[in-house]
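Q&A log
Question type: sequence-to-structure
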Amino acid sequence: PRVQLALNVDDIENPGAGGTLNHLGVEVATTAEVVDTTRRLTDAGLPIQVEDGTTCCYAVQDKVWVEAEGTGRWEFYTVLADAGAEAVAETSGSVCCGR
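Response status: OK
Response body:
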């Protein structure tokens, strides 16, 4: 899969820690691949957070988040559609990719 490195340098989540790595993202082609990844992570006993149809980073996405000790936060996602201008404006003040 394509691996996308996401660097979030704002101070919303980690005040005073600008420039730190926020998370790593793996983009997959389909929602079925997100579901398969969710199943594998659950089977491994890792805590996950599922977000279906969420608007983030100018796109509507299905995704699953996982954080394992020592590896940081990972996001496995697929892009369903571009987000319209209204959706982007609604999420612009939130921390969508950096939860």
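Response note: The mean pLDDT is 79.
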